[in-house]
Amino acid sequence: MSSEQDQLKETNTEERFAFKKDESAAVRSDKGLTEEVVRLISEDKDEPDWMLDRRLRALEHWQNMPMPTDWPGQPDLTELDVEEIVPYIRPDVDKREGADSWDDLPEDIQDTFEKLGIPEAERKALSGVGAQYESEVVYQNMQEQWEEKGVVFCNMDEAVQEHEDLVKEYFMTSCVPPSDNKFAALHGAVWSGGSFVYIPEDVTVEMPVQAYFRMNSEGMGQFEHTLIIAEPGSEVHYIEGCSAPKYGSHNLHSGGVEVFVKEDAHVQYSTVQNWSKNTFNLNTKRAIVEKGGRMEWVSGSMGSKATMLYPCTILKGRGASANNITIAFAGEGQNIDTGAKVYHNAPHTKSTIESKSISKDGGRTNYRGLVHISEGAEHSSTAVECDALMFDNESTSDTMPYMEIDESKVDVAHEATVGKIGDEDVFYLQSRGLDDDDAKQMIVSGFIEPITEELPIEYAVELNRLIELEMEGSLG
Amino acid sequence: MTATQVHETISEETVREISEDLGEPDWLLETRLDALDALGELEMPDVIRTPGRDWTNLDALDYESFVDPLNAAEEKDQVGPDEAEVLPLSEAVEEREDLLKEHFGSVIDPQENYLTALSTALFSTGTLVYVPKNVDAEDVTIRTTQHSQSLFNYTLVVTEQSSSVTILERQDTGDDVEGDRYYSGIVEVAAGENSHVQYGSLQDLDEETYNYTLKRGDAADYATVNWVEGNIGSRLTKSSVETELNGEGSETKTVGAFFGHDDQHFDIAARVWHNTAHTAADLVTRGVLDDEARSVYEGVQDVGRDAWDTNSYQRENTLMLSDDSEADASPKLIINNHDTEASHSATVGQIDEEDMFYMTSRGLDDESARNMLVEGFFVPVFEEVEVEELREDLETRVQERLHE
User: Fold this and answer.
1) How far apart are the first and last CA of chain B?
2) In chain B, whose CA is at the least distance from the CA of A370?
3) B302: closest CA among B239, B349, B246?
């Protein structure tokens, strides 16, 4: 640590104590994301100095970068009051020990759990009660099965302590540096929680690694960081189940996901997200794939007021490949702006992007994608396919693919279609005895099948049920 | 863009002089002066941006070096059949002031961006094509050969109810000038009810010329506006071909072809707005890139809230002949009405190795095989070109380029 940092830390100790003495007042008067808050988080987690240093550098980027405002057709972020983020952080930190009870959950969220048929124990976990307990059980199971082989699956905060060297090397360095974008910078400054997954060389983890209910475990789920390192020849399927709607009070989720796919390794990252309808969901997810490695992204984006999420894959080594499957569902008042980015930076790399979107009741879905093929990435190929299904005339669907091709020996294809639900299809199903709603649901289920078949059965079932709920419009 | 970059001859006096030479009415002079005034505040036309990158850098153009409106010189053919009126602008301001007043700037806002405003303030040559009710006019030709440093050209096409017209426009360069050149062309098409406009264009400017072209049609009920957009020449082209389907049952088809070599840069857009019910659009573009040439393609199909029963299709294919070339593409779909059938596709690739192998195994040398495959690549778009003369011209220019 430099003497300058020592000095910073020194001068701040006093403030920090003062801060703690008069907690609520100090926080509420403190508008905007400040150095004090960042130091407080780091201190609270007892982090090493280098992590604090990274947080502070990220904070600087956050303060210096402009908000994205002028992308064509981008979600409106003006309602996102960044100055209000800080008051949300401090109470969350305080909540570490305590937890919300099931009864404290908003009724519509309770209702959703009921309708999803989520078992009582899981509900408790999802609502925050006993999350730590539940997660410890899961970690222990993991440890029993994989410990001998050196697999690590733990909370990200814990990883900073227990696996410091790895985290120091990989955390927001080469994959998602805080300078990447405004919200990556924010994330770097205030991140908390998340998962750390390390798979040693040639180890295959047969069962999916699931981080299903960690979201509320520390009450700071909206800035969680996921770091996955898959050593050469290893294989893992990580599932992030954010299917629980979030607490209504939170209005920003800005997660960070970094995946390192080493030579001939294979990582699948699946996520089903259903944020509450007042959440701004602005994430940065990226994978770097070495020679012969394979990265698969499977995402279902259901909830949120606005989502801007474009999982990105950098195909760095020869023969690396990436597959993206995304589905977006936007209902009333929602703007789901999602897609995929792939950089082909080596020869013989391959990528596919399959995007499906459904919009109804004035919802807006965007596909925004970027495929970049660098000079020298010869014999690379990419295929992008986007399909949009629209239910009514209040809804909007945009497709904005961007293709930057610097190399001639490539095969690049993009296709997109938009259509309404065919009256004939509905008529056919109705004539077989289904009512209008069921017929439409069946058509939608067929439409999203490419996604659901990539997911373990319980997630697929859940995704379908979530869509059914959306279709009924009966969440509350 | 700031006004400080504008050449000092771009002044009120210059604008007044141009306007006076053409014998323009006051309202047109005012429109020019307003555009001139607005230059300081206007932005460059939109270009595709992805993080960290503008795909075409229009701000880098040094207007001082080539804008020289008072010395504009061109050779022009403006001919058409007797049934239609094809008038040079200097005549149109006298004989058809009513049409000019009604339609000038009605399809393209003179102050839409910096380059449209520059064009409006400084245009010195142009054509009015007027086709009266129920008249079919074939073979309208507008050929412009630029002899000067800069040239600002304005074209207005007005078709009355149930008329039709076929227009073939060509631009090339004649006398050599020192340094870079600038050609700017604005084309407005007001297509009346049930009329049919076929507007073909072949841009074959020399490779020291920077080119800005904006063509836009407004289609009334049951009208058709079809475009053929051929780009062969220029050093840098920023060209947009657009149709607003404002009338019920109106249609548009855009056929684009470009062939870039050396360090040519083509920024090409094909756009359509479906603003009402039962409209149809088909956008088809094929391009070939050789050497260090670069293409940027943006296609937009915008289906508005009231555009019930829309059919909209778009295809773009780029063939890359060289590792040093670059192709960027963004075909966009913007859909606000669910009663829509829309699709788009884009591909980028090189000549198929199997095709090459097949051709060479039949005794062709590599170059001949490649040339035949390039010519073959253009066939599907050339087949869509209804104007025979334009199709032949395009084919000839492609062949010439292949054998250069």
Assistant:
1) 38
2) B50
3) B246
CB contacts, 8 Å: B349 with chain A: 410-412
Residue A132 has pLDDT above 50, yes or no: no
The answer to whether the CB of A398 falls within 8 A of the CB of B333 is yes
Q: Identify the closest residue of chain A to B298 by CA–CA distance.
A: A402
Q: Is A263's pLDDT higher than 70?
A: yes
Residue A89: what pLDDT?
44
Residue A250 reports pLDDT greater than 80: no
DSSP string for residues in A137-202? HHHHHHHHHHGGGT-EEEEHHHHHHHTHHHHHHHTTSSSS-TTS-HHHHHHHHH----EEEEE-TT
- What was the ipTM of the complex prediction? 0.85
Q: B299: alpha, beta or left, given left = phi > 0 and alpha = psi -120 to 50?
A: beta
Looking up tokens 């997911």 gives A455
N- to C-terminal Cα distance for chain A? Answer: 52
What φ, ψ does residue A246 adopt, rounded to 5°? -80, 165
Q: What is the pLDDT of residues A327-385, one digit of tens each?
A: 899 999 999 999 999 999 999 999 999 999 999 899 999 999 999 999 999 999 999 99
The H or E element containing residue A438 is: helix A436-447
Cβ contact (<8 Å) for B344 and A404? no
| Rounded mean pLDDT, A8-19 | 35
Four-residue CA torsion sign, B49, B51, B53, B57 = positive
Query: Residues in chain A, how many?
Result: 476
Residue B40: how many CA atoms within 13 Å on its side-chain side? 6
For residues B177 and A327, give the distance between their C-alpha atoms in angstroms, rounded to a whole number. 56
Digit-coded pLDDT (tens) for A264-275: 999 999 887 777
Average pLDDT over residues B229-255: 97
pLDDT value of residue A117: 52
The answer to whether A67 contacts chain B (CB < 8 Å) is: no
Please tell me the distance from the alpha carbon of residue B57 to that of residue A202, in angstroms, as a whole number.
48
pTM of the model: 0.85
Contact criterion met (CB < 8 Å) for B331 and A412? no
- Closest C-alpha to A319, from A370, A381, A268, A375: A381
Q: Which residue of A has its CA nearest to B290?
A: A408
Whether the CB-CB separation of A261 and A233 falls below 8 Å is answered with no
**Locus of tokens 């410990």:** A147
Q: Locate the chain B residue with the closest alpha carbon to A423.
A: B339
Nearest beta carbon to residue A408 from set B330, B342, B350 = B350
Q: In whole angstroms, give the CA distance from residue A252 to residue A242.
A: 14
Query: At B245, is the secondary structure helix, strand, or coil?
Result: strand
Q: Is B32 left (phi over 0), alpha (psi -120 to 50) or beta?
A: alpha
Q: Which of B283, B335, B340 to mutate to test the interface with A (most CBs of A within 10 A)?
A: B335
B352 to chain A, any CB pair closer than 8 A? The answer is no
What does the pLDDT read at residue B355? Answer: 86
**Whole-number Å distance between alpha carbons of B334 and A305:** 20
Tokens of A11: 């001068």
What's the distance, CA A370 to chain centroid?
A: 18
Structural Rg of chain A based on CA atoms: 22
- A194 vs A134, higher pLDDT: A194
Q: What are phi and psi of B257, to 5 degrees?
A: -145, 135
Give B345's contacts in chain A (Cβ within 8 Å).
Answer: 413-416
CB–CB of A388 and B333 under 8 A? Answer: yes
Partner-chain contact A408 B340, CB within 8 Å: no
SS3 A8: helix
User: What are the structure tokens assigned to A292, written together?
Assistant: 């012969």
**E strands along B350-393, which residues?**
none
Residue that is written with structure tokens 């303030």 in the block: B121
* Percent of chain A whose predicted confidence (pLDDT) is above 90: 39
What letter would DSSP give residue A204? B
Hey, is the C-beta of A69 within 8 angstroms of any chain B C-beta? no
Higher pLDDT, A441 or B76: B76
Residue of B nearest to A366 (CA): B334
